[in-house]
Fold:
Amino acid sequence: MTAAIVLAVLVVGSVLFSLLSPWWFTPLASNWGTIDTTLNITFIITGAVFAAVSLFMAYAVYRYRHRKGVSASYEPESKRLEFWLTVVTSVGIAAMLAPGLVVWDEYIRVPSNASVVEVVGQQWNWTFRLPGNDGVLGTVDARRISSENPFGLNPDDPKGQDDVLVSSNELRLPVGRPVKVVLRSVDVLHDFMVPHIRAKMDLVPGMVTYFWFTPEKTGTYDIVCAELCGAGHSMMRGTLTLVEDAEYQPWLREQPTFAQSQTGDGPGRRSALAQNSGDSGAGTRGPEPGGSGH
Amino acid sequence: MAQTAVIGDEHAHDEHELHEPKGFVRKYIWSQDHKVIAIQYTITAIAVGLIALVLSWLMRMQIGFPSSLEFIDQEKYLQYVTMHGMIMVIYLLTALFLGGFGNYLIPLMIGARDMVFPYVNMLSYWTYLLSVLVLVASFFVPGGPTGAGWTLYPPQAILPGTPGYEWGIILMLVSLVIFVAAFTMGGLNYVTTVLQARTRGMTMMRLPLTVWGIFVSTILGLLAFPALFVAGVMMLFDRLLVTSFFMPSIVSMGQPLDYAGGSPLLFQHLFWFFGHPEVYIVALPAFGIISDLISTHARKNIFGYRMMVWAILAIGALSFVVWAHHMYVSGMNPYFGFFFATTTLIIAVPTAIKVYNWVLTLWQGNIHLSVPMLFSLAFILTFVAGGMSGLFLGNVVVDVPLSDTYFVVAHFHMVMGVAPVLAVFGGMYHWYPKVTGRLLNERMGKIHFWFTFLGTYAIYFPMHYLGFVGVPRRYYDFSGIGFIPDSAFTLNAFITVAALIVGVAQGIFLFNLVWSAFKGKPAGGNPWRATTLEWQTPQTPPVHGNWGPRLPIVYRWAYDYSVPGMEQDFLPQNYPPAREAAKAARGAPVVTETTP
Structure:
């Protein structure tokens, strides 16, 4: 009896909690309202099934609790019932899966008019690179990374000379235009996460990953790292500021290009990226125990 | 088959002569008896589980009450997180379900005298113990245990910047490799025993669902653990010999490293090729145990037995083609998303069928709210809640905002942490009387139950909503993140308090385990009036060889409860049909005595 009541109260309480609790999605600042829609569809279907199954169980526990002289029925199976339950379940599953796959198809197809921004992760900060006037990012190689060339750009690649380097943890983007975010890591896995954007992706050393979104609401949003990247993981923060184009252009002009950073006469500061580098010119080494570490 | 039984008899006599006089050490330490090995596995798993419990308290203290314990720095925090996860998944749950329940129940439930390879079975336990000791040793090496997260993703697992990259990760990988060897020895035994040593009349479709769950789970393990073994060996090479299986060109802390050309994603594929079946390795035995507990304590046959068996097999097969749903935002080819989302949501169908059949078994039952039944009900509710949140994470695009947040932590704790542990508790309250001859104290059991069930629900149900907010997991410090409201910190403090209470409540269970062994109510041979063979042994606890001179003969399935027209509300599997009974009355060989 008590058990049946507690089960029922738990279910009702869970539903009320969902409706009344202050914890829900962060306000959306990108085009990915469709992700929220699929999430809501899933939430409603799964919530209904959870409540139905659990309340049915609670009722069965109440209705068929042990009483003297009453014995259980004997019913090994019911093909019809099992068939219909399978069909109904499959329909519910399809109702969640189908819209999910449609939105995923959108997620992985970058619009042709998207501008490009590169996110570079390194323990434990973010830096960014924009393609400059030619609209193309210059080639990079992890083996070229040094305190003089923290992004590892190929100095002989003409496409890289005008690349704009943002060596602080703050990235600005103009609203209204789709952005393809390409991601690269210098050392370990990271994940570029801004909850307001919904979209996210891991940064993987040795490869370039991507996702896209369209900034829609101006404002300042936290960038956090969502893939465990060592002791400083929770401190790997950044800021994404979404602004109108008129505010974007002056900021963009302040950032140095690769060519300027090499000659040292650019408007921007020298990168703080390689501040931990120590004597990086002393040759390569494996991760021996007791090495310089952090 | 009759011949098998005879051979079994001779074998048993031999073993009695070889075994009995050797005294305490041979009987309880270097034992080849599956029941003793089961208890060794269980005690070791519980002991190492207690370490994991304390680690969870420490990490929850940091999350709920940041910096209240000064010795927890960000490195220690990650070490606690990592060791808690690895111990719980591998060294507690896998070992307890298969090494513990599997060892104890398989021979008894199928009517065998022991596992088919008792010596290998003994080696399996001692190898497992070695893996545990290597694991625990990593707490005492310079730099401490690894803090790479239980997923051990390279490159960070073996690079400076991650705690324990010096020695901890090496011991972790060595321990896992040893564990896989131990599991393989045990696993081959369980599978072979189920296939070869079933007593006369015990067809596969008469097996109790507990045996089905453990059997299929073991097959999954035998196919999945090699992937972990390979990944572990490769990462050891990367770490010790500077090979580059998983390591591309990297600049670590400003230092270019000697690695080149490896793929961090390769490790993730290998890890989850093991890691996802691992979820079902701990879930399927739980499914089986819950099926049997519900049927027995509701005095009703399990509903849709054949469908339940097919569902276990379907889940087992499908579990090998869903692994990359752990990698939707890993940077793998995005077209994988379509495939893995589809397979993942399909696996929900057989899983849902199992849930329906459990609650339909309760329907029109005669439900005794014993402690095992209470744990079974709690299992179903927790499993359904956690299973539902799995449908978010499996559906690729819905996973994108939720991955790596507390939604994931809440989901997997409910579905493969709490739910299996509730099944373990239900199973222990149920089978303890067979192991010791005494019942666990019911009052203590109920107190333990309510604290555990309501406490874990209070921890993990609200935690999902932190994930909706976007709170990232494996964070030492949440301060200064704009999208996390103050109320989330209050919720975290609440969850920590609940976790401490649940942890302390486990003390009641441990006390009960010890106290009842001496002072518990004597149980008799079959206190739950159950049908399956383990309750029909001539002695309780069963002696070496289990069955006395003759093996039981099976005449019926495992779920003849409340059969219409019968006097008692259960018919043991070895209870002969009327014709056989008449033969027995004329003096033909009888089956083992049953105590109604």
